[in-house]
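Subject: design request, 248 residues
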């Protein structure tokens, strides 16, 4: 029985590696850097099977999906965790940056889920790492936020379609990882309610085992999720842009 973790070389990904090591015979650790994958194997041992895939490359992504279909592994956990983010107005993104972001954050998670489903038995888990930014539109991280809203919607539907598999969208707020820049335009960035990656992963695994289709991980962000349901989104966006203003 195996686990597949994309973005295994990142901070949240490595926490999933640590937690799932004792639960499966192998972890297919998906990443794009040979050096980081080798370091992961050195630190966690022979259960780590490094799989080098650049998820923004169509041929490499399809190649990985075909590997799953050909090898037919029994999959206990699929964690679609790889993701990229960039702050700024859509008008400042290049076409390549937009295409890569959508491919990594959405297309890869969708195709890998599809390829893995036939090999996931009763009681298996799919965890798609989305974000609390999926709960409302967020100007200046518009693409990231919209890509995570897709992932949230996709995962919840997948959970209904596949009764024997638990599918959970993991939606943390700010997490203390290298994805978050420490400063912008010379100003130190403050991240309200930031939590460590270990807490996100503990909470995600507890929630998916309870059968929850969304994992939020902190009271602060559960409360914001509730607020975003009952407040007009035009107002929520205004508050968000106000909060970002010092850094733009
Ligand atoms: N940090 C936060 O505040 C926060 C909040 C909510 C949700 N999230 C989500 O959590 C997930 C993990 O992020 P993190 O915070 O742990 O950041 P991270 O440490 O930067 O991890 C991102 C991972 O994605 C991988 N990746 C990026 N582009 C890739 C590509 N083209 N092909 C294959 N892998 C690629 C990275 O590989 P390399 O190691 O080679 O770069 C890395 O392993 C992401 O989906 C992110 O959106 C993060």
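Subject: RE: design request

Done. Sequence follows.
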């Amino acid at each position: 029985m195996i686990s597949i973790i994309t973005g295994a070389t990142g901070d949240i990904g490595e926490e999933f590696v640590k937690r799932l090591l004792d639960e499966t015979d192998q972890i297919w650790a998906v990443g794009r850097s040979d050096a980081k994958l080798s370091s992961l194997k050195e630190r966690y041992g022979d259960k780590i099977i490094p799989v080098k895939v650049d998820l923004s490359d169509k041929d490499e992504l399809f190649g990985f999906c075909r590997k799953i279909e050909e090898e037919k592994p029994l999959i206990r956990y699929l964690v679609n965790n790889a993701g990229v983010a960039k702050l700024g107005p859509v008008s400042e993104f290049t076409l390549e940056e937009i295409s890569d972001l959508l491919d990594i954050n959405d297309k890869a998670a969708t195709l890998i889920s599809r390829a893995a489903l036939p090999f996931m038995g009763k009681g298996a888990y799919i965890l798609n790492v989305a974000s609390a930014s999926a709960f409302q539109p967020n100007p200046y991280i518009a693409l990231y936020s919209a890509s995570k809203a897709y992932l949230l919607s996709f995962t919840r539907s997948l959970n209904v379609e596949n009764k024997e598999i638990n599918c959970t969208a993991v939606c943390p707020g700010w997490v203390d990882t290298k994805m978050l820049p420490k400063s912008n335009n010379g100003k130190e960035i403050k991240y309200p309610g930031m939590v460590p990656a270990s807490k996100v992963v503990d909470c995600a695994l507890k929630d998916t085992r309870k059968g929850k289709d969304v994992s939020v991980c902190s009271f602060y962000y559960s409360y914001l999720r509730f607020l975003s349901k009952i407040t007009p989104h035009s107002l929520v966006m205004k508050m968000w842009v106000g909060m970002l203003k010092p850094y733009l």
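The chain has one domain: 2-247.
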